[in-house]
């Protein structure tokens, strides 16, 4: 599955050269969660990531290519990266982005009983929808289901209790690890002034478009590209056309714009 | 789980004012409590009574989500739920003592079924985040009939002393007994100048609902209304506030 590989490279380009702190996964540091979505009220909020005039964005990409992980980390391993100040260092509303890269087994979307496009869509949804099930105490993520916005309210109490991006990263990783198809993941939190948030937001929008296209493929689309409604995204995203035509082979023609 | 308080009755009997009084009294009595005031009356008015400005309504959000979903963005149930949670904050007005949501009204003529159904879902979804949810219901019986307020702890029926007002309250009470799961229901008689009239109403069998309090007309409040001032600008010993407190205390007493 290669549908997100180009996006991973583009976002890494946006992050290139920016300073970050890296942390390994530590199950002991997973930030505690509520059992269900809990509202952090304005009166209890210390600040809002992506709140007020600041912007927010999120993107989760799935890949089968371990070299994408080795390339940057030297080894395939779970990692948390913090670009910019930690939660304890932030004093007011700041722009914010979360970028998750998830490496899955090469056979993760292979099931003889299901079409390749259905399996790929389900895999992408299972991994991306983790964001709707993370209820960190005092870390209220307002994740849009229709765009890539994701402002987060951080409570004063959570800050007193020691919340950090590092620990929230452990929480994300602990969720990904519940999926047996996941080999490793990297969670990056970004609050640097200099980052191109709108660039990541645009990529997030494309990820939604890719999933929607897969959903449309699943429901049946014409096999004549000139009359197909998803031809633009199909032209742009490597691997989509292969899924559409049911040809999940490395030799299939790939088009990248 | 939130304690859900709903107010309903005939139009023009002071329902919205009493609702705003409830919000003020609960906030003053329990400063730590998380209170959500919902203006479920498409006629709107609770926002003015509470002194908040509405920028978006639930119906605005409902339409935006439908438009997006129809265009193909985020159609899975979990995505739509995420979108509701995301956008609800655009409609939620938060103050230090309470949060506020307005149902709004669909554009143009037509029925309110869709927005009422949506309101029911939203009440269920957001109420767990609050200690108190105070709902200023639509005048009449529609929202009871449509089970928008299906589960309510305390149902307050508001009426003046008029025969019509009491008939509407009685009708709502009868339907609510069938369709609403409520723990307690009581009647507030508002704008009653002569307290003796209550004995007369009871002796005449005009209502068999428990009368929680009788509130006289209040020139200070009427002046407040004309000036567009909120309930928080009313003197603390105003009859409307004393009456609302009496009603709340009676319903909350075990």
Describe the protein in words.
The complex is a heterodimer of chains A (257) and B (254). By secondary structure, chain A is an alpha/beta fold. Chain A has a single domain (5-244), classed as Bifunctional carbon monoxide dehydrogenase/acetyl-coa synthase(codh/acs), Chain M, domain 3, CATH 3.30.1650.10. Chain A has eight helices and eight strands, in the order αβββαββαββααβααα. Chain A has a five-stranded mixed sheet, sandwiched between helices. Chain A has a three-stranded antiparallel sheet with strand order 2-7-6. In chain A, helix 3 (116-128) packs antiparallel against helix 6. Chain A is globular. With 254 residues, chain B is an alpha/beta fold. Chain B has a single domain (3-252), classed as 3-Layer(aba) Sandwich (Rossmann fold), CATH 3.40.50.300. Chain B has helices spanning 15-29, 46-50, 58-70, 77-91, 113-127, 142-145, 163-179, 196-203, 219-227, 239-252, and strands at residues 3-9, 35-39, 93-94, 99-102, 132-136, 151-159, 181-190, 211-215. In chain B, helix 3 (58-70) runs antiparallel to helix 4. The longest helix of chain B has 17 residues, at 163-179. The A-B interface holds A 36-39, 41-43, 125, 129, 131-132, 142-147, 149, 208, 212, 215-216 and B 34, 65, 68-69, 72-76, 78-83, 85-87, 89, 94, 96, 99, 126, 128-129.
């Amino acid at each position: 599955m290669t549908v997100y590989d180009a996006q991973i490279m583009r976002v890494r380009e946006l992050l290139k050269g920016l300073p970050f702190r890296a942390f390994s996964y530590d199950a002991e540091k997973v930030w505690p969660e509520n059992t269900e979505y809990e509202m952090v009220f304005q009166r209890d909020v210390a600040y809002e990531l992506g709140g007020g005039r600041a912007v927010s964005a999120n993107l989760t990409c799935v890949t089968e290519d371990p070299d994408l992980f080795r390339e940057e980390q030297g080894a395939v391993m779970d990692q948390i990266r913090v670009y910019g100040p930690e939660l304890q260092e932030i004093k007011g509303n700041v722009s914010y982005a979360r970028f998750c890269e998830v490496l899955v087994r090469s056979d993760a979307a292979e099931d003889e009983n299901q079409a390749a496009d259905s399996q790929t869509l389900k895999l992408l949804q299972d991994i991306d929808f983790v964001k709707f099930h993370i209820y960190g105490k005092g870390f209220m993520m307002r994740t849009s289901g229709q765009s890539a916005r994701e402002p987060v309210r951080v409570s004063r109490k959570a800050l007193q209790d020691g919340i950090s991006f590092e620990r929230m990263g452990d929480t994300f990783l602990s969720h990904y690890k519940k999926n047996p198809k996941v080999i490793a993941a990297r969670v990056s939190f970004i609050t640097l002034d200099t980052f191109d948030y709108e660039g990541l937001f645009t990529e997030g929008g494309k990820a939604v478009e890719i999933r929607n296209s897969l959903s449309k493929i699943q429901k049946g689309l014409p096999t004549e590209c000139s009359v197909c409604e998803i031809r633009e995204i199909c032209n742009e995203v490597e691997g989509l056309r292969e899924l559409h035509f049911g040809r999940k082979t490395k030799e299939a023609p790939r088009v990248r714009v | 789980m939130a304690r859900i308080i709903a107010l309903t009755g005939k139009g023009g009997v002071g329902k919205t004012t009493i609702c705003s009084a409830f919000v003020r009294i609960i906030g003053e009595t329990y400063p730590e409590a998380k209170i959500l005031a919902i203006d479920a009356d498409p006629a709107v008015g609770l926002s003015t009574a509470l002194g908040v400005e509405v920028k978006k309504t639930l119906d605005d959000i409902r339409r935006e989500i439908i438009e997006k979903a129809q265009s193909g963005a985020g159609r899975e149930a979990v995505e739509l739920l995420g979108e509701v949670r995301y956008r609800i904050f655009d409609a939620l007005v938060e103050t230090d003592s309470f949060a506020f949501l307005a149902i709004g009204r669909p554009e143009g003529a037509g029925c309110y079924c869709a927005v009422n159904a949506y309101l029911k879902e939203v009440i269920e979804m957001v109420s767990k985040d609050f200690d108190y949810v105070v709902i200023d219901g639509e005048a009449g019986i529609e929202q009871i009939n449509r089970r928008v307020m299906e589960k309510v702890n305390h149902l307050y029926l508001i009426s003046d002393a008029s025969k019509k007002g009491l008939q509407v309250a009685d009708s709502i009470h009868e339907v609510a007994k069938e369709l609403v799961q409520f723990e307690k229901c009581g009647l507030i008689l508002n704008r009653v100048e002569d307290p003796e009239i209550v004995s007369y109403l009871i002796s005449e069998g005009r209502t068999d609902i428990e009368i929680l309090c009788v509130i006289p007309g209040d020139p200070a409040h009427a002046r407040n209304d004309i000036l567009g001032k909120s309930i928080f600008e009313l003197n603390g010993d105003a009859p409307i506030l004393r009456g609302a407190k009496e009603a709340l205390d009676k319903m909350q007493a075990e």
